[in-house]
Amino acid sequence: MATKRKLPRTPLALAVMNLLMEHPMHPYEMKSKMKERGHDQVIKLKGGSIYDTVERLEAGGFVEAHETSREGRRPERTVYAITDTGRDEITDWLAELLAQPVNEYPQFGAALAFFAALDKDEVVRLLKMRIALLGGQIAGEETQLKTFMEMGLPRLFLVEGEYAVALKRAESEWVRNLVHDIENGKLWITKEQMKAVGETFESRNEGGDRE
User: Fold this and answer.
1) 10 Å Cβ neighbour count for 118?
2) Residue 17 above 80 pLDDT?
3) Which pLDDT tens digit goes with each residue over 68-127?
4) Are the beta carbons of 71 and 10 closer than 8 angstroms?
5) How many CB atoms are closer than 10 A to CB 37?
6) Element (H or E) spanning 37, and its range?
C-alpha cells in the first residue's frame, strides 16, 4: 500500500493550488496571475520556485499534468490541473488557515524580546527608522492597490494586499506608542534594575521549587 504524501504547506503551494482550482495552467501563467493580482506582496516569487513547488505537488498526487504543448522552437510547456485529492486537501487547509490563529514567530517579535541589550537612545533611533520605512511601504502598497482597482481588478483579489497594509499600519502605530513610552520613562529600566528583577524572580522560583 502506497504511503500518502503530505501536502507541502507553503504559501506558494497554497497560491498554486488555488489558481488551479480556477482552471488548468502552465507555471508561467500562474506566476503572471500572481503578479497581476498582487499576490507577490504576501508570497515570495523567485527564480524557479513555482516550478519546484509544482513538481512537489505533482509527486504527491495533488496536481497532475493536463497537457503538454510546444510552440515553434520554444521548450515544451506542461499545463497542470488539480486532482480530486488536491482539491480536498487545499479546501481543508484553507479553512484551517482562516479559522485558526497560529504563532508565526516574526523576527521583529524576537528582536523586541532582546532589544534591552542595546542603549536606550539607539533603540529609539532604530524604532523611528522602522516607523519611517513602514510609512514608505504603506504608501507604496496603497498606491499599488489603487492602481489595481482603477484597472478594474475585483477587490476580492486584493484583500490580502489590504491585510498587509492594515498590519503595517497597526505595527507603525504600536511602535510609535512604544517609542513615546521609552522617551517618557514609562518603559525603560536600567541594567541594575533589570538585574534586580531577574534575581527577584529567581528567588521566587527557587522557593516554589522547594515547596
Assistant:
1) 13
2) yes
3) 876 656 667 899 999 999 999 999 999 999 999 888 888 999 999 999 889 999 999 999
4) no
5) 19
6) none
Question: Virtual CA dihedral for 157, 49, 2, 82, nearest 10 degrees?
Answer: 30
63 beta partners: 82
What is the length of the chain? 211
Of the listed ranges 17-31, 142-156, 190-204, the one predicted with least confidence: 190-204
Q: Which residue, among 16, 84, 25, has the nearest Cα to 54 in the 3D structure? A: 16
**Is the CB of residue 15 less than 8 Å from the CB of residue 35?**
no
- The C-alpha cell 520554444 sits at 74
| pLDDT tier, 3 (very low <50, low <70, confident <90, very high otherwise) | very low
The DSSP string of 178-197 is HHHHHHTTSS---HHHHHHH
Give residue 210's pLDDT: 52
Between the alpha carbon of residue 93 and those of residues 86, 90, 143, 203, the distances in Å are: 10, 5, 31, 46
Provide the angle, in degrees to the nearest 10, between the axes of the packed helices 120-150 and 159-183. 160
Which comes out higher in pLDDT, residue 20 or 37? Answer: 20
Measure the CA–CA gap between 178 and 170, rounded to whole angstroms: 12
173-191 pLDDT tens trace: 999 999 999 999 888 887 7
Q: Which among 36, 53, 62, 56 is positioned nearest to 153, based on CA atoms?
A: 36
**Percentages helix, strand, coil for the chain, rounded to the nearest 5?**
65, 5, 25
- Cell 484553507 belongs to 94
